[in-house]
Amino acid sequence: MQQIKNYIEQNKQRMLDELLNLLRFPSISADPKYKDDVIKTADFVAQKLRDAGADNVEVCPTAGYPIVYGEKIINPAKPTVLVYGHYDVQPPDPLELWHTPPFEPSIRDNKIFARGACDDKGQFYMHVKAFELMMQTHTLPCNIKFMIEGEEEVGSDNLGHFVQANKERLKADVVLISDTAMISMEHPSLETGLRGLSYLEVEVTGPNRDLHSGVYGGAVANPATILAKMIASLHDENNRITIPGFYDDVLNLTQDERDAINSAPYDEAEYKADLGVDELWGEKGYSTFERTGTRPTLEVNGIWGGYIGEGAKTVLPSKANAKISMRLVPNQSSDKITKLFADHFTSIAPPYVKVKVNALHGGEPVVTPTDSIAYQAAQKAIAESFGKEPIPTRGGGSIPIVALFEAELGIKTVLMGFGLDSDNLHSPNEKYDIYNYYKGIETIPLFYKYFDELSK
Amino acid sequence: MQQIKNYIEQNKQRMLDELLNLLRFPSISADPKYKDDVIKTADFVAQKLRDAGADNVEVCPTAGYPIVYGEKIINPAKPTVLVYGHYDVQPPDPLELWHTPPFEPSIRDNKIFARGACDDKGQFYMHVKAFELMMQTHTLPCNIKFMIEGEEEVGSDNLGHFVQANKERLKADVVLISDTAMISMEHPSLETGLRGLSYLEVEVTGPNRDLHSGVYGGAVANPATILAKMIASLHDENNRITIPGFYDDVLNLTQDERDAINSAPYDEAEYKADLGVDELWGEKGYSTFERTGTRPTLEVNGIWGGYIGEGAKTVLPSKANAKISMRLVPNQSSDKITKLFADHFTSIAPPYVKVKVNALHGGEPVVTPTDSIAYQAAQKAIAESFGKEPIPTRGGGSIPIVALFEAELGIKTVLMGFGLDSDNLHSPNEKYDIYNYYKGIETIPLFYKYFDELSK
């Protein structure tokens, strides 16, 4: 442990500067105009893996953005850890809400502000530096494989093919991912489940052209009004989703499971104050942690139609659109829910509009086992570096790869995240505490140590 | 009449070229970045009035865009006609739907395609050319005053002050406006009423920042969803507006008035085919012409919130906005309806969001008399040039100036429009038939002739 602390102490500044350089790449996978930057980011990651001591480093082409692979096989008899992360980031808009430019990392109050600081550059890069640390101090006790992709924020469309085509190369005993959050540094936690995702875009068309709202208003359906009515109908008065069959496959938690989730520290006044809302909203009969961790949800991620510029334009728009996504819980199927949504949304379209529904992407929900050697290794690592047992929690986010790995390679995942819910993931002013970054680099080698010991 | 036809024939091309030049100015009053172009347009109009023979031409400054004034007083004892028009235009977006650039007029199939071709450059410029014709042929029988403004598309905010400050200068016996449509060239019509307008922008705020829809989704209200529910609640199952008191001041038409309106030629199949819709929508119990001409309406002119770029972003937005306008009918008050909307919209906001309502502009509804000398002069002029009596109709659009003139100067208006509902006003590919342009220039001098005769 002291050896780990010493190495970090001696390389502190360089480890931070390298992350800042990584954060300077605008690797926005959702926006084609950043294509070159995304690819440059992959090359940068590959070089850093080589520098840290990885063998067989390769920037593997896919139909989309490349996947960076690297490995260190110290002894085939030893357990193997497959580290997954992603070097792509969410779009930064709305830009005007950033206090400093999203791709010019700025350090304030010991926090790194930049798009991707926490999700996921800051977190996967801890593994690169922890690997370097174990190599330099000759303490790497397991085989290690890295697979860092560039399409996580757009649905990891090409990862499945890659995994299927590389089953031998990716063979491992556990997948280790840092792309989630802890409750707080005072309350370290380990996520034991993730929600799935179905993401669609809908288009409602009324008249075949934008119309003068005075000449035609009142005589032809306004697609923005109709879209509003359709969206409004998707939640009932208890904020339950009204799509027929939507809840059919949801596994209801036992009272013990609910108690465990609700035992996590939670201060509603603080929660509301942080979000700046007077009242919370959600499915009737569930607590906040149950709503975000164990219940499926439907959110409008974006809506647009008609004139949205400055001033007043009296137009009756031809089209209105929305991006709508659903978070899924264990036993729900992304494909099935996507189809249920599409069928329902089309079925509720009134005869005076036309509706198009386009599925953008999806991912399956997962539950990770808490009785595995790997989970115990993570527990012991965190207990040692934080001086406190981690609390098991259910995460609300989605990491499609977890279900994919289980299905394709039969490997379970450990979600050892060091972020915080307050890190503004997907929001302006995303940040990552420098403390958490070093804490992760300190904790990860302990995971390898205990995973090796417990595997004997 | 022959003299009029001859003059037009001899000056056809020049009269058209001048209009095309006027249409090349992007005089978009709603968008500050076109400020210089709007002002240049005013100067162009002033010069054309001078060229046509107007005296005391002045580009009158206002708190906003200038008002162009010009006059020809042939004899104070003669009746005086005040011509109103506007040189500003609607924003052209969505640009991608234009077949040719909005400010590069293109002639196809004897139609001029350009923003403002019909609304209102093409129509007010007919008056400038008809004035030139009467000057050149020494046939101007009345005094004439021009007042061409540059803020009609943004609510004519500064026109009121100008009118109040220039009552003497604007003294006239009738206001003549060509900013409306006829049923068709085969069915010439005269509008006898216009709807008023209340235009507002609303903002619904949920959390104080955009959130990760996985981490927070299901536990905090989504402002886009809430805005959709609020908008959805503004119309009931009969498509009536649910704002308390909204219909209180509406004067219901007599059966005779309704019959007159419904006597206008109307082919529903054609109407639907032109708009590309399978079904029409509107307030239960009323015909299409009644809905657009005699009933108040509420339209969403624009809606936006969250991520509207390419691809998928799993964000729970902080804000959602909409531009909403209501068309008002005689006896409704714009200020009162604006207040009713603001109070109602605020009152239906649930406790987990904050709502802001901002009134952008408004205008009062009007009915123009059909028993006046001026109206009869317009009837006779159209009957002579079209060989058919015009059908009285109720227009759905709004021209705030009409009510303003009545209130401030006590002058009634004649709405002698030569556009068509199919001219794509406020839409991409706005057009004006060259035939209508010349037909207007031919008809207007006849109005002056009969207005003078009937005034004796």
| CATH superfamily label of the largest domain in chain A | Zn peptidases
Largest beta-sheet details of chain A:
6 strands, mixed
Helix content of chain A: 25-40%
Q: Under CATH, the topology of the largest domain in chain A is which?
A: Aminopeptidase
The count of DSSP E runs of length 2 or more, i.e. the number of strands of chain A, is 21
Q: Compute the gyration radius of chain A: what is it?
A: 23 Å
Determine the structural class of chain A based on helices, strands and strand pairing.
alpha/beta
| Residue fraction in strands of chain A | 15-25%
Question: Which stretches of chain A of 5+ consecutive residues score pLDDT under 50?
Answer: none
Q: Greatest chain-chain interface?
A: A-B, 100 and 100 residues
Task: Write down the CATH class of the largest domain in chain A.
Answer: Alpha Beta
Strands across the major sheet of chain A, in which order? 1-2-6-3-7-19
- List the quaternary state of the chains: homodimer
CATH second-level architecture of the largest domain in chain A: 3-Layer(aba) Sandwich
Domain Peptidase M20 dimerisation (chains A, B): 193-352
Pfam families (chains A, B): M20_dimer (PF07687), Peptidase_M20 (PF01546)
GO molecular function (chains A, B): metal ion binding; peptidase activity
Organism (chains A, B): Mucilaginibacter limnophilus
